[in-house]
Amino acid sequence: MASVRHIRLAYNSAYLIESGGERVLIDTGPDYRGAREVLAAVVAESPPGLVVATHGHLDHAGLGHWWQEQGIPVALHGEDMHYSTGHQLDDDELQALEGFVRESGAPTDVEREALAGLAARRAWARQAVETRDYRPAGRDARWPTGLRYEPFEPRRVLTEEVTAIAPGLRALVAPGHTPGNLVAFAEEEGWLFSGDQLLPEITPTPAIQRFQSAPGAPWRFRSLPRFLESLQRIRGLDATRCYPGHGEPFERVTDVIDANLGQAEQRTTRVHEALRENGGATLYELAEALYPRALRKRFWQIISTVQGHLDVLEEAGLAATSGGRWAAR
């Protein structure tokens, strides 16, 4: 019988699992001032033999370097290694994202604002990797200080669809939130450790992000279709309890998954209907028709969401793009 300890790290949650006599920590924890001390106290008498980062974002893998300094290996999926090695939002990805903005059909002033936002995001990402000091907490104050991310090479790079990480405990590839996103599942207990794949009160927004795989392949990872496919696969696990990367553990896991899938289906239908009504539109025109009051203030969130649903429609044969304009089928 497995046991689990919930470790609260400000806005994040990590979980120390003992299964079959082995201990595994799910997520490294975010690197804010004081987080290391919390983790060190919790594992002082029973350190894990392995830390599994559900994905490469700085609040889930930010202490990977520190754990490996303690002699404890960190596992991460290979598709997320550009995060851990500090190569996030590099020159190639920045240029690709700038091209995405220019091809969206946004007016010149909006394009200028979006490109400035990209530059600020890149500066923030670089500062998190390069600074040795903790910055002040952000406006939303999710953590006591700003976050750092010391680059590291994970000692265990996962590539298989399913990997045993302890007796009765598996890591499952669940791409969507990131290309190399993982969840963990304790088979006997039916416990799902979901990272950001499934959260109690939030449906993660698909991002415009880079895909690392095959040379010559399209640069953009189609987040939303893969996220929904992963949700469907996780639904088949019949999990009894979910331990998310943010918020409190919850039961009725299938109900939460179905709510996520239902909401996504409604939004995809709405995008399809708007595309029909407009008789063809650029990405920006479609986003403006759907979210006229919010688009300017939340450009990236909305443009990413609409693009995600267009990806779903295109893969279903219900939409197509030509010359920068989308049309319903």
Radius of gyration computed on alpha carbons = 20 Å
The CATH architecture assignment of the largest domain turns out to be 4-Layer Sandwich
Instruction: Report the uncertain regions.
Output: none
In DSSP terms (H or I, runs of 4 or more residues), the helix count works out at 10
* Averaged pLDDT: 94
**CATH class label of the largest domain:** Alpha Beta
The percent range for helix content is 25-40%
Number of strands: 15
Envelope shape: globular
Q: What is the CA-CA span between the terminal residues? A: 52 Å
Your description of this structure?
The chain has 329 residues and is of the alpha/beta class. Helix content is 37%, strand content 20%. It has two domains: 3-87 and 144-260, Ribonuclease Z/Hydroxyacylglutathione hydrolase-like (Metallo-beta-lactamase, Chain A), CATH 3.60.15; 265-328, Arc Repressor Mutant, subunit A, CATH 1.10.10. The strands form four sheets. A six-stranded mixed β-sheet has the order 1-2-3-4-5-6. The protein has a five-stranded mixed β-sheet with strand order 7-8-9-10-13, with no helix packed on it. A hairpin with a 2-residue loop joins β7 (162-166) and β8. The mean pLDDT is 94.
